[in-house]
Recover the amino acids of this structure.
C-alpha cells in the first residue's frame, strides 16, 4: 500500500496551517479518460438518443468581460455590445435546436447555470432571448436558474428582465467590500455602492442572491477580512462563498508580483486564519454550511447546480469555452469565437475535445461530492472500495483532517480548508493503489462543467 504526503497530508500539530504546502487548484478529478474521435454524424446521432442520466443540468457560457480583474486568468473577450449580441443570437439558436431534440426533451433539468465571463454584461434584450431559449427545455417545477456576474451594470431593467424570464438565483462576484482592495484588484464600485445594491436586490426576497468573497487579496489584512464578513452578513444575501485566492499564471496579479509592485498580501498561515474566522463567524451567526466553501442564511438557497456538478450529474454545455458531459462523455468546447461561430453556422459541432466515458464516474461523483460537502457517507461506498480506502481515511484522522462519526467520515475545519488537496490525494491514492489491477496511466481530460472560478 503506497501512501505519500500528497495523499495523506503531513503530521503536524497545526494541520489547518501546515497539512499541505499550498492549494494549487480549484478542482480535483481522477483523470485517465481517453479522447474520442467523434464525427458530425456521430454527434447528430447523440442528440437522437434519450438520456439515461438520473439528474441533469445546463451550463451556458458567456465569455465576455468589460474589465480584467487582477487575479483572473479566465479573461477571454472584451464585452463589445455588438460582438456580445451576435454571440448571444448564435448561442440562443444553438440552445433552441438542442431543446427540440429527442435528447434534450428526454429527461427534465433541475438546474441551469449561466456563467462566464460576466453574463450580466449582456444587454437586457439578449437576456430576455436567453431566458426564452432556456424555457424550451423541460425544466422541473422547482428548477434552479442561476445568472452569474457582477453588480456593476446590473441595473433594474436587467433585474426585472431576468426575473420575468424565470431566473431565481443570482451569484455576484463581490470578492471584497473594501474600496481600496477592490481598486487594487481592478474591480468596479466602492463599498457603499455594493452594499446599497445588495440591500435593494434582497429587500423583497424575489430571488436568491449569493455573494462570492475571496480571502488573500493584496491589501486585505485581518481587519479588512473581518469587515468583509460583517458586511456580507449584513447585506441581506442568502448565501456566500469563501474562496482562497490561488495564484495563477498569466494574471495581472502575477505580473505585478514579478515587478515588485504587489504590496502586502496574506501568507499561507494568515489565509488559514481568515478561512477559520469566516467559517466560525458565519456558523455562530446561524448560517448553515452546505459545502466546504459555501454557507446559506436561509433554506431558499440550495446551491443545486454546484452540488450536481460535484456529484457528476449530466451537464449539457453550450457556448465557446463551456464544459460538461453528454451520455457519460466529457466535453469541452474550444474558446476561439471565430471557430465556434463558423461551426454553428455550418450546422456542425463546435470545435472541442470529447472524452470516452469514465467507468468510475458514479463512484468518483460520490467521493467528490461527499468530500466537497465535508461529509462522506461510508455506508454508500461498495464494501470492497470502503475497505480499500480505510488506510487513507485513517491517516487523515491521525493528521487531524477528518474524524469518524458513526458511518460518516466528517472533515475537520482543517480538512475542509484543504478539501481540494484531499480530493486530489484520494484520486492519487486510487491511481497508485488500484483495486485489483495495475495502476492506470493518467491522460488528459476536459474536467467538469466550466464556469468562472473565483477562488
Amino acid at each position: 500500500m503506497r501512501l505519500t504526503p500528497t495523499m495523506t497530508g503531513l503530521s503536524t500539530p497545526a494541520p489547518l496551517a501546515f497539512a499541505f504546502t499550498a492549494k494549487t487548484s480549484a478542482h480535483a478529478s481522477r483523470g485517465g479518460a481517453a479522447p474520442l474521435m467523434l464525427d458530425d454524424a456521430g454527434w447528430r446521432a447523440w442528440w437522437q438518443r434519450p438520456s439515461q442520466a438520473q439528474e441533469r443540468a445546463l451550463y451556458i457560457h458567456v465569455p465576455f468581460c468589460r474589465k480584467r480583474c487582477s487575479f483572473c486568468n479566465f479573461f477571454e473577450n472584451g464585452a463589445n455590445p455588438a460582438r456580445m449580441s451576435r454571440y448571444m443570437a448564435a448561442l440562443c439558436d444553438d440552445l433552441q435546436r438542442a431543446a427540440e431534440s429527442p435528447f434534450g426533451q428526454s429527461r427534465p433539468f433541475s438546474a441551469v447555470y449561466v456563467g462566464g465571463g460576466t453574463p450580466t454584461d449582456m444587454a437586457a434584450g439578449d437576456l430576455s432571448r436567453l431566458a426564452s431559449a432556456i424555457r424550451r427545455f423541460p425544466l422541473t417545477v422547482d428548477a434552479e436558474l442561476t445568472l452569474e456576474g457582477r453588480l456593476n451594470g446590473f441595473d433594474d431593467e436587467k433585474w426585472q428582465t431576468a426575473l420575468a424570464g424565470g431566473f431565481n438565483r443570482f451569484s455576484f462576484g463581490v470578492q471584497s467590500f473594501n474600496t481600496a482592495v477592490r481598486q487594487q484588484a481592478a474591480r468596479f464600485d466602492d463599498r457603499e455602492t455594493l452594499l446599497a445594491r445588495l440591500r435593494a436586490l434582497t429587500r423583497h426576497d424575489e430571488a436568491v442572491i449569493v455573494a462570492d468573497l475571496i480571502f488573500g487579496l493584496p491589501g486585505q489584512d485581518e481587519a479588512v477580512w473581518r469587515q468583509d464578513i460583517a458586511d456580507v452578513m449584513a447585506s441581506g444575501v442568502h448565501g456566500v462563498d469563501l474562496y482562497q485566492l490561488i495564484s495563477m499564471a498569466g494574471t495581472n496579479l502575477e505580473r505585478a508580483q514579478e515587478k515588485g509592485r504587489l504590496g502586502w498580501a496574506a501568507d499561507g498561515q494568515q489565509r488559514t486564519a481568515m478561512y477559520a474566522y469566516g467559517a466560525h463567524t458565519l456558523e455562530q451567526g446561524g448560517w448553515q454550511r452546505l459545502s466546504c466553501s459555501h454557507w446559506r442564511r436561509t433554506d431558499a438557497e440550495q446551491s443545486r447546480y454546484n452540488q450536481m456538478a460535484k456529484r457528476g450529474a449530466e451537464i449539457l454545455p453550450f457556448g465557446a469555452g463551456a464544459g460538461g458531459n453528454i451520455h457519460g462523455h466529457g466535453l469541452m468546447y474550444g474558446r476561439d469565437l471565430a471557430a465556434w461561430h463558423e461551426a454553428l453556422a455550418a450546422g456542425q459541432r463546435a470545435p472541442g475535445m470529447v472524452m470516452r466515458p469514465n467507468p468510475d464516474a458514479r463512484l468518483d461523483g460520490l467521493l467528490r461530492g461527499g468530500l466537497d460537502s465535508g461529509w462522506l457517507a461510508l455506508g454508500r461506498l461498495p464494501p470492497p472500495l470502503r475497505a480499500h480506502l480505510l488506510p487513507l481515511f485513517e491517516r487523515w484522522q491521525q493528521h487531524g483532517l477528518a474524524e469518524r462519526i458513526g458511518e460518516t467520515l466528517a472533515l475537520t475545519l482543517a480538512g475542509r480548508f484543504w478539501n481540494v488537496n484531499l480530493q486530489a490525494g484520494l484520486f492519487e491514492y486510487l491511481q497508485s493503489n488500484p483495486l485489483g489491477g495495475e495502476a492506470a496511466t493518467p491522460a488528459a481530460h476536459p474536467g467538469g462543467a466550466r464556469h468562472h472560478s473565483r477562488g
The longest strand covers residues 139-149. The two ends are 34 Å apart (CA to CA).
